[in-house]
Amino acid sequence: MQAVTIHGYGGPDVLRVQEVTKPRVQPNEVLVQVKASGVTTADALMRQGTPRFARLFLGLRKPKHTITGTGFAGVVVDAGAEVTKFKVGDEVFGETSVRFGANAEFVAVADNGVILKKPSFLDYASASLMCDGPLTSMNFLQYLGEVQPGQRVLINGASGSLGTAAVQLAKQMGAQVTGVCSSKNVELVLSLGADEVIDYTKTDFTRGAATYDVIYDTVGKSSFGACKRVLTQKGKYLSPVISIGLLFQMLGTSFVGSKKALFDATGLKKPEILKEMLRKLLMYIQEKKLDVVIDRQFPLEQAVDAHAYVESGHKRGNVVLAMGA
Length: 325
Description:
Distance between the termini: 17 Å
Number of helices: 10
Oligomer: single chain
């Protein structure tokens, strides 16, 4: 089978699309023929091996797992003897988490992992992205940020994969939403339901007069220190982009002060917790309260170009590798 492989840390050019051995299913696994797979900012960071302390988990000198990607959607083509939840022919989606391997024509997934049947109202491309922007933003806003109706929520990076989902989800939670993005994406963010949009090329939100109950920095471009002035008395700064600075801020605010810096590794939560969140997200999509914004789709053989586009910082929403979807 064809797969996107990586054998060292670096830019998009460290990737290769090459022939590799198709996975053989274990008794508790299904083999999924992948129709679509996401390429995310998180994938780019893992390819770079940043932050550097993450290499303690990813692999010190090179990635431990040689096939990239975590989010997938496709069709079950084989099932192990112990599998009871899925059968050949089922359309499914999910994520492989720290096992990676999703940017390939086939991927093996445990039937008790983060994998669900794909509903007919969700196409393969959108389904392959559910475990990135929508799932992460649901976890950060609802469970970590505990957003309440009437609160003021600012989304930094509102036009990206996490940001486009976060704007819509925060509105569903009853918040007053401010999005931060570049000039060219203002209309997009407004169309997703933002009450106000700040163009970061013209205005620095950390120097403004408005204050926020929750600041969700989806791109990690700011910091708790910079945002502290515009947080309410019990305000929360959330970011899915981990760094040494954020770790120290989390530690410090856990002991001192009412304003908090918070991080959570969404993909490391128990599969049942993640699947319950995904079921809620599917309900939002079915009710047309949430849309997965897709910027571009690339064929598998153009994975290097897909990574380069993600790394350029110009994408709006999500990028997908499509394989006959």
